[in-house]
Structures are given as structure tokens and as C-alpha cells.
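Hi,

Apologies if this is the wrong queue. I'm a grad student, and the batch job for EGFL6 protein from Bucorvus abyssinicus produced an output file that my downstream script rejects. I'm not sure whether the problem is my script or the file. Here is the sequence I used:
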Amino acid sequence: SVDCSFSRGVCDWKQDSDDDFDWNPADRDRGDGYYMAVPAFVGHKKDMGRLKLLLTDLKPKSSYCLIFSYRLAGERVGKLRVFLASQKPAPIWEQNKGKDERWRTGKIEIFQGAETTNSVTFESERGKGKTGEIGVDNVILTSGLCPED
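Support response: The file is valid. Your script probably expects a header line. Output copied below for reference.
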């Protein structure tokens, strides 16, 4: 199991240098550490910001579960997508609006073939809105299938 919350800094996170803006740390409401966020007013509509988690030592022909917390707060804030390096160019997960400002849990099952995935990318696409933010936190990768709710 790999725990990649941002406060501990155990994982290898990289900002994409070819995108339009960076994700930035934001303090959690309870004050216990921080998460990564893109405020709604950063950049222009359709601009992208990508945050990549580099993965090492994943076993071929195995299953993994990627679990993460995410939040899309604000009117027309944009889109959050998740890509696997081996499965480009289509996202394996996408969310384009939140019903409210609450944090939710995303789960993605990753099946490794002969070629293993070496990164997971969280991509934020800027929307029309000027308030709110897109946030990601508590990224955990475990071996095996994702647990049922």
C-alpha cells in the first residue's frame, strides 16, 4: 500500500512543465496539513494544470486500487480528470461538477498488463467560474481490487 497524502511527502509528485499552471498546496480547514488545489480564478478557460504521481515497483499482471479525496467547489469551476501513463490519451476518471463543496472519494481500479503503469496524472481544466477551487488529497494506492462502499 502506498499512501501519498501531501502532508507526509513520501511520494514522488511532479508538476507538469508543459501545462498552463501549477497545483498549489492549500491548508486544510482543520489545520492538519494541506491538500493540493487549483483556485478557480487561475489561468484562462480551458487552461490545464497537471500533477503527476510517479509510481515505481508496480508488479505486472496485478490489480491495484487508487483511492483519493477530491472536491470541485464553486459554480462552473472546471473539470478534474485522472490519466494513467500506459492508457493515454483518454482519462480513466472524470468529474466536472460538485453538488456541493464537500470532499468526495474517487476510486479507480488499475489492472496491470505486461507493461506497468509508471504514473498517475491528476489534471485540472479551468472552467468559466471565478470562485471556488478543485482540490485533491489523500491519494492511496493498494494492491488488489477496490473495496465495496
